[in-house]
Specification:
By secondary structure, this protein is of the alpha/beta class. The protein has ten helices and seven strands. The protein starts with 7 loop residues before the first strand and ends in a 7-residue tail after the last strand.
Length: 256
């Protein structure tokens, strides 16, 4: 398939894991991919992988909580392409566990999980509108936004806000030719996974998943590719009549 031939796609937070998987899939289908990440070295590595497979991409170092940096990135894309067909947002931190959270920690989680999502999406509207009815936004939330996280209610709160946000974006964006949807993964074997287990940072993801998978109807965690494929679908014309929805990609966790 070449669903993204001639299209410009920006993925924010695509230096590893699910964002990387989505970038690779979209590039394989002909998209010109902008890979933005806080870790510019990781972004460059992803673009090098894309180029090795015959695709095209641009690597950008980006702090998604920096509104001026976001504005500068969109201005650069406007100068180079004059249009953006799809934006995928893959930024987030788990935040502290429990209920005792100091104000500085609380604000950090809000800045990373909410502020960056709001401005990444809204500042892209003008460029996405130039896609002539093909504009698309996807935001990665979490299954914990649907069922709640006993480990970190703050994480559920911050990521949960993205679900009504995409509904609002869909209502505002529809008349402007822009769709908006959210993806809600369960446990995914990514470099970030160990940060969800206090005191277990750096442990092998397979070990961490061992106890969790017993509570998953499909009996396992997800691979980043399985989330990336859904992201690619939502940003393609195959999902041209899908907007304002939040799709769990969690092996069935949210139906229990």
């Amino acid at each position: 398939m070449n669903r993204f031939d001639g299209r410009v796609v920006l993925l924010i937070g695509a230096g590893s894991g699910m964002g990387r998987a989505a970038a690779m899939r979209i590039a394989r289908e002909g998209g010109h991919v902008w890979v933005a990440d806080l870790n510019e070295t990781s972004a460059k590595e992803v673009v090098a992988e894309i180029a090795a497979e015959g695709g095209t991409g641009v690597a950008v170092g980006l702090d998604a909580t920096d509104v001026d940096a976001l504005k500068a990135l969109y201005a650069r894309i406007d100068v180079e392409h004059g249009v953006l067909h799809a934006l995928h947002y893959q930024v987030g931190i788990p935040g502290p566990s429990g209920l005792e959270v100091d104000e500085a920690q609380w604000q950090q989680v809000m800045d990373v999980n909410l502020k960056s999502a709001y401005y990444s999406a809204t500042l892209a509207f003008e460029l996405l509108e130039k896609a002539e009815g093909k504009g698309s936004i996807t935001l990665t939330s979490t299954a914990a936004a649907i069922i709640g996280s006993a480990r970190s209610p703050l994480y559920s709160m911050s990521k949960g806000a993205l679900l009504p946000f995409v509904r609002g974006l869909a209502v505002v964006g529809g008349p402007r030719g822009i769709r908006a949807n959210a993806v809600c993964p369960g446990m995914v074997e990514t470099p970030m996974l160990s940060s969800f287990f206090p005191g277990q940072e750096g442990r092998d993801t397979g070990e961490l998943m061992a106890g969790f998978k017993e509570g998953v109807p499909l009996g396992r965690g997800a691979q980043p590719r399985e989330i990336g494929d859904v992201i690619a679908f939502l940003n393609s014309d195959d999902a041209s009549y899908v907007t304002g929805v939040s799709i769990p990609v969690d092996g069935g966790v949210t139906v229990l």
